[in-house]
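Lab manual, section 2.4: Encoding a predicted structure.

Procedure: take the sequence of the chain (317 residues), apply the prediction step described in section 2.3, and record the output as structure tokens. A sample record is shown.
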Amino acid sequence: MLSGLSKSTRVWLAFASVYVFWGSTYLAIHVAGEHLPVPVVSGARSLISAILIFLICLVRGKSLRVPKGEPWKLIVVGLLFMSGNNMLLTWGEKLVPSGFASLVVSTLPIQIALIEMALPGGDRMNLRGWAGTLLGTAGIVLLVWPALHHAQGAVGFSHPLLGVVVLLGAALSFAIGSVLSRRFQFKADTFVATGWQIGAAAIFNWTLALATGSLHRSVWTWHGVTAIVYLSVFGSLFGLVAFTYLLQNVAVTKVATYAFVNPAIAVLLGVLLLGERLASTEVIGMIVIVAAVAMVVYSRVDRGKREIVGMAGDAVE
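Recorded output:
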């Protein structure tokens, strides 16, 4: 269907998909988490996504086999992306508003840069990268400060400090997965590898849901189910396909813009649909964080690396 479109049109559609779908996942996660326990939300999302990916592979005649030695690596990365990151993000959005959560998680590229710097043979940040890291830290302080002092009991804030810690943990899980994914250099087909990763997470997430009794406590509502289906189809499937297409056809510096566009969309949707509000200092913190992420991302590109920070998975998304 899209084959008849010009390349420029497909690129624009891909950008729109990554911006809108990944930016809106914070809203969908918030809605799903309001109606269902965290392990059930993550388990259902990953299960539906894995089934869809495997069905597409079968229809297209793609073998589901991966090279020897890669299954365990795919499983590890999948658990970091769709279990650690996804469950912590869902939990965090039970504690703070979705727009606020997206801004905390947007520090992900900074975390990846720091991890890479600490590893043997990893990238070293230049002066702009360090400036961006320090600026991002200042942005987090500006963002969190009013929440810690005035947001207790406010709409969407139940445990602001715990929420920030959990969300930083979600970003760290994705950051570690991104670094490992890059270093593993998977030879398996991207679509098949993604199916393995999400499938492994689905098994783990459902096991946790059964072990904790979360499944028995679940109350399946129309809003909750709709949010999960949206996350599975648009967040995990369409968003990932569009992102992969962009990486193959557009300069990495342009693709990198998702890291600072997604939080803006998440904040906007939170304000329009959930009635969330940001204090003036939080707005300043948002601007500072976005600027800091841009500095870190572009400092890595300037040094000749053609990989974008955090190229795998869905932020979350």
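Check your result against the sample. The chain has a mean pLDDT of 82.
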